[in-house]
Every structure is written in structure tokens, then in C-alpha cells.
Amino acid sequence: MASRIVAIALLVLSAATAIRPAQAQNPVPAAQGGPITPADIMKLHDMRDVALSPDGKTVLFTVQQQMSTFNSPHRTIWTVPGDGSAPARPFIVSAGVDAAPHWSPDGKWVAFLSNRPDPLLRGKDGSFAFSMEAVPGSSPPVAGTPPAATPQPGTSSTQLWLMPVHGGEAIPLTAMPSDVTDIAWSPDGTKIAFLSVDPQTAAEKAAKAAGKNWIEVDHDTHFSRLWILDLATHTARRVSPGSINVSAMDWSPDGKRMALRIADTPGINDYFYHSRIVLFDPATGKVGKTLLDHAAEGPFWSPDGKSVLGEAIRLPGFIGLGVRICDVATGTVRALADAYPALFTNVRWSTDGKSVLALSFEKTRSNIVRIAADTGTVTPVVTLNGESSDFDVSADGKRMVAQLSSPDRPSDVWTIADGKARPITRINAEVEHWKLGKVRQIHWKNHKDGKTIYGVLVTPPDYRPGTPTKMVVQIHGGPEWAWWAGWLGSWHEWAQMLATHGYVVFLPNPRGSDGQGTDFARAVGNDWGGMDYQDIMDGVDTLIKDKIADPNRLGIGGWSYGGFMSAWAVTHTNRFKAAVVGAAPTDLVPFARITDTPDFPLGYFGDVTTHMADYDRRSSARMLQNVHTPVLVMDGMDDTRVPITLSLEFYRGLKMLGKPAEMVKYPDEPHWFHDPVHQQDVQRRVLAWFDAHL
Predict the structure, then answer these.
(1) Spans of all domains in the chain
(2) Is 109 in contact with 137 (CB distance < 8 Å)?
(3) CATH topology for 9-41+431-693?
(4) Looking at residue 133, what DSSP letter applies?
(5) pTM check: above 0.85
(6) Are 128 and 120 in contact (CB under 8 A)?
(7) Which tens digits make up the pLDDT trace of 277-286?
(8) From CA 630, how far away is CA 246, in angstroms rounded?
(9) How confident is the model over 165-201, as pLDDT tens digits?
(10) Could you give the CA distance from residue 567 to residue 56 in angstroms, rounded to a whole number?
């Protein structure tokens, strides 16, 4: 989304000063020890997509402009030696987005996705008039005839590009009429599989031009298709049949078969909850047997070609992920380490195929673990001091790198050796000079059942133990998500900003969260606002008892489920003096019927008609008479996950009762905000709201 300034529509002007962007009370900038401002946060860069070369000597990674967002307008591919022996530097750069670097099997080429303008010269027939010279010792591909209808030069759709590792110009390989979304090299390096969504047909374009722009709900016919580009013949062909939507793929070790993750429709609900892993013959386009239902990650072929690895949503309830090994010959599925108290992500095979490597989120931190393929025994590889969402391993399995955010620095590339991790980049060097809040993992017990609960506490830079201090409780989304003892500064993560303005920030992981196993995540079935709320309040009471939190200056806030819990809290207690309710499902019956992922609420509460009373009992919008806390409501006007009508209902209901409330709605924003102007404004208003009331 372009970084444009969009006017923010305020629904109410009463007490307007309370939600105006905060004016700095301390002119000292963060770089000189002053408090962190929203503007400081927005200058930070995020890094992702760690890709280690097959020989383990070079790391590629991406750097983007905005923290914690999915639609940054600028992204660059960087490189750094795997041992950190030289500084990181940009490797693939354009004015737009360059992302998803994939090494060729021989390590001589990098395939990547980019929305840069297409520089190809075209003949009258639309064919490419372009070729590239070989890197010595290799057999390079040549750009040639476009695999589909070609867009006009100068368009900025995302296409597949190639870069020689030893330098040179990026080479366009596709000119698809729609974005290319994922890529996978064949094991011999002669082909690249990629995904692209069906473009608008001529009839659809004509209808739209004529004003016939209506949308038939649940009738999306624009499927994500699997294509295979032959690098020797310069041609691509669509290989997936018309009846399936493909979201992920992997080649068998011999390159003769593939495994795909597919769904029957391109709808987001089917993608999340009804995807499956199947065998596929790319030569004939025939879909084979289903190996894994309700697949959420994968597929990944084993080195011997006998098994496919994936992760499945653990039924009933669509809550939790389970590591699964599928036998290709028999179709049997084995579960690995289901009882282990952690969330496994980013699974992959070890080089010898005897184990599975994975990120393991435990309590509030990430680890890399090895799971024995035969017994499911989990062995730590390295304990990471923070939160990681990506790692990679060299072809021989001897070298490893990870993306990691630690308490005192946003995401960087870390190299891992001998059970230890050390950073080899400094993407946000300015943070080194900031005076940060102290981040630490804490735990306490629920006084009703004695369950140990974990969370994160961030205290002001100059905090003195034993000093009761104003405190904000920030609740994470989900509920199956979790706070981490790592970097906590983005448009959505307010802890470091608030801490440097004198707040203690409490980030609890109540039951329903990740980090203590699937049973813990399931424990809020039909009980949102029950024992999870008790977990949070017992944490607040513990911090008051320990003379960390001032009981007379408590605030609460959050986004999505965090907004739900903030709304729930102010309908059940007057202890909080201010609340921020962001994109919150405050009325669960309409939420279940209008969200774009209807299987999500069903997994927690069951069929709406049968369990309507249960949904209503957990709906804070039906308890507004209990609210005495000033509430700031925020939401995106294009939110299809938690539509803005739910926020409006909560806000309007409060105003009709004469309750203190204000609301801000943001044009063109989905559930997870994209526009940097809006992201900065959210932070400003959060800080101003708590400053005004605490």
C-alpha cells in the first residue's frame, strides 16, 4: 500500500484532547536517552526470509521498511557471510519489493520475487528479445517466451526473477498477468515451479468497465495455479487442474513427483482450515492420494523420498498444530511429540532424514529443537533469547542461521554453532543508543486452580524495584498466539514505547495462548473471558502485591482477541482507568456469522444456532451498562476478519448509555494495518489515551 496520508475519521469530538496525537513532553530524542516515540518506531526496519546457501557460507535475507506488517512498499534482499566475517550489504535492490530469495541447488543462482518494472524488449508478437550470459562453469537459463498473456511494459506485478550469485543484472523469467506468489527449484536445478492466481478474464474486465462490479459471495473463481518453468526451453506450463487451489508445493528428491497443499476453493477459510496435502504428478497433472487433512504447514519430502512432512490443525476445535509424517506408499500418518508443551513451527527434515528440525516456542521464548522421526523425542539444538519466526540449515546440516528478535534489538540474522547463537547483522543500529525498558519473563499462579501462567514484564529504563508504577496490561491477539521475551516495538506492540514513557507494561500469556502445549491452548473452549481472564487478573494482583504496579493507575488494551479481552475487562471490573479496544469481536453471534474465517469461532464455541446462548454469554457488547472506564475504540474499515460493525456496535452502545468512549476508524485498512501513517497514528493515540487517564 502506498505511503499516502489518509484523513482519519473521528466519530466523536467530545474530550477530543484525550486522543489527539501525543506531544513530546521531553525534547530529548531517543538516540540521546529520551523516550521512544511513534516516529522512532516507524523508522525501524524489519528483517525476514533467512536463506542459507547450500554450502553454508552465505546468508540472504530481506529487509523491509515497516515493523510487523505484511504489505511494506519497499523490501530489499541483503547478503552477509554465514560466519559474520564481513558486514551485511544490499544484494538485490529495486524501488519496490524484492523478496523470497531461493538458492539454486548448485548455489550459483538466486531466484526471487519482485514487483520491479519489466525491462524486457518485446517484439510485435509479444515475445522476449533478451538473453543472459553464463556464469563460468554453469548452464544458465535463458529468458524467453512469456508463459502467459504478457502485461504491458512498465507494470509492477510481482514476477519471478533470477540473479547470478557472482553479480550482474537481475533477469526476468516470467510475465504472468497476475502476481507470482511462491517458487520452488527442482532438485536438478533445471526447472522452477511457481504459483500464480488466475487473472481477470476479458469478460470480467468488460463487465467491470461497464459498471457491473458486483461480487457473488463464496463464488471466487480466481484460483492459485501451479506452473512449471523449464529453464532450458524458456517455456512455462500450467500443471494443476482447474478444480483445486494450490498454496504450497515441494518436489520429490528425484524430481518426478510433487506434494502439494491444496484446497477446494481459494477462500481464506478453506486455506486456513480445510487445506490438505496430496501427491501430484507434474507430467500428467493428476492429483494423487491425500496424505494429510487440515494441513497448516508443509509439504516437505524426506531425503529418501518415502515420506512427506507437514503440520496439521489438531481436531477437534481447529486449535493447535501437530507435526505429522505421512508414509507415501501406505498413506499412514504418524504424530510426533504431541504431548510436548510447545508450539512447533517452520518444520523441516534433517539432512539424514532421521529427525525433524523445528522452531519451538516455549513459555515466552523460541528454541530450535530436533524431533526424532522414530520416537518423537525432542532434543534442544539451541535456546534463543527472544523470538524467532525463521531459520535455515546448510545442505550438509552442519551450519545454521536464524532470524531472531532479542529484548534489546529488533530482528537480526544470528548464526548458530556449538549450541550458541550470536548476531551477525545490526539492521537497526540506532536502537543500540536507545535507553530501553527492561524485558523479562515472569510467572505466577491462577488462584483458583493453581495453574502456572507465564508472561513478559517490561519496566521503565530507570525503574527502581519496589516502586508501584502506572501499568498498562496489553493482551495479545489470538487467543492462540503469545507474547515473547524479545523485541516489543511496532505499531501493534507498544511495550517499549510505553515503558520509556514511564509505564510498566504487563504482557500475559493466559490459557488459550501458545507456549505451554495444545491442551493449554484448548483450555478456553467455550470460556473466553473465563479462566483466561482470571489468569490475567491474578497476574495483575501479583504485580500489585510485589509493589511493581500501582493499583490506582491501571490501563488495559489490545488488538483482535486482545481487544475482546480489554472490552471484557471493562465490563467486569472498574479497576482499569483507561482501555484501548482494537478490532475486537465484542459480540460473538454476529462475529461468527460475518467473519471471513467462520471455522475459527466454531472451533471454540460450536455451531452458532445450537450454542447461541454460549456466544451471548461471552459478548461484552451485551454488558455495556457495567462500563465506567474510558474506552478508545479503533478499527480498520476494510477489516473482514473482525468487521468494523462490531466496533461500531460497542462504541455506539456505550455512547447511548452516556459512557466515556471515543472511536477512530481507518479507511482502507484490513485487520492487520498496512499504511505507515495509520500505524504511527495508532501508537500516538494509544500513548495519548493512557497519558490522559493514568
Answers:
(1) 9-41+431-693, 252-336
(2) no
(3) Rossmann fold (3.40.50)
(4) P
(5) yes
(6) yes
(7) 999 999 999 9
(8) 47
(9) 987 889 999 999 999 999 999 999 999 999 999 998 8
(10) 49
